[in-house]
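Consider the following input, taken from an annotated entry for Trk system potassium uptake protein TrkA (Thalassovita autumnalis).
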Amino acid sequence: MKVIICGAGQVGWQIARHLSGEKNDVTVVDNNADLVRRATDTLDVQGIAGFASYPDVLDQAGARDADMIIAATHSDEVNMVTCQVAHSVFAIPRKIARLRSQSYLTAIYSDLYRRDHMPIDVVISPEREVAEAALQRIASPAAFDTEKFLSGKAHLLGISIEEGCPVVNTPLRQLNDLFSTLRAIVVGIRRDGRLFAPEPGDQIFVGDECYIFTVNEDINRTMEIFGKESKKQERVVIIGGGNVGLAVARSLEERTERVRAKVVERNRSIAEKAADILEKTIVLHGDGLDVSLLSEANIERADAVLCVTDDDKTNMLAAVRAKAEGCPMAIALINDPTLVPMMAPLGIDAYVNPRSTTVSSILRHVRHGKVHSVYSIGDAEAEMIEAEVLSTSPIAGRKIRDIEFPEGVLVGGVLKGDKVVKPLADTRIDDGDVVALFSLASDVPEVERLLQVSIDFF
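Applying the prediction step yields:
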């Protein structure tokens, strides 16, 4: 597949890294020659320095025979015009645009993106995706990472193993004997900075970060087994009243179970806008690092603080300050993955990675066919892939023990009809089943071959 990626920033680079690693023909376009050079030096991609919306630049990038264009520059307007040019001049079949402005995303204006108006096939909103991820972190406060799968019936949970965990030093195969009715599978373990798919004889040690796939009904029990306490979040303080903080506060207001939220925003005009939009949420104008303001927000009585300003270091410092003032749970928005290892020493409980969230959302649409969703884990180290099994797939009609999965791949769950089944060695994968697979990045091409997604791409 021939793909043009417009924008060589963090998101564009990660998408290029994924797609070029899967042997696609990728060209990266950016008006910053240094970013283009970084992409061509580190990835197996071609690069063009120039403005993505210019027809001659797209022509140079090979738009005449491209299968897809992904517009992920920093400008909404450039992304929109790029898709228009790609459609009108080059007839590129599939066009994906990242749009940040909420005005462009309002449902009443969705008619704008019809083929005879502004021909964008898929609109990705980073702020909305990140807000949803933040809400999931609040819903599972003891997990550092969480994502839903299989029609929302199951979740992938990232859990840090600490002293006192009941299953420390226990081989994974024994978990099935000890908790035979538990529908949960350890699909990935990060140990000493390395992520791997565990084997049945592997044990869990203190300090490990485990990725566990479990059905919704067993989330609380899974948390308890792995040494975590499930607590309802009733009071939340949000540091940052921009698009992400506003989206989170609005979602909390709409919930049937009342969650009391307070928003702290240092920019007066943004704070006033948030106060006008929000009906049940208190908005405080001031610095989220100000102890007296945090005290006014009753931070010591809050169940969680969510730090979602547009600055990583501010988010981390605000999270540390809130914890120091008595808040038991701190979640920070972190764009730079190199800062993530500092979270544990600083006592920050969980984080939201906008880049990973946006990359996952775009990959979901790139892997078109029967792939329902893709979640990028860590610094693009692995993926959780949810896909429907085709009748032509090599795995259809076979038991899991008989399928030659690569070493870095594990089945997390199988949706048969409307029921999630725990995958065991003798579980049969049938045509029409939906499977959730954990795969290390290097094994993704083989997973796609087993699912035969490529024949259904367009």
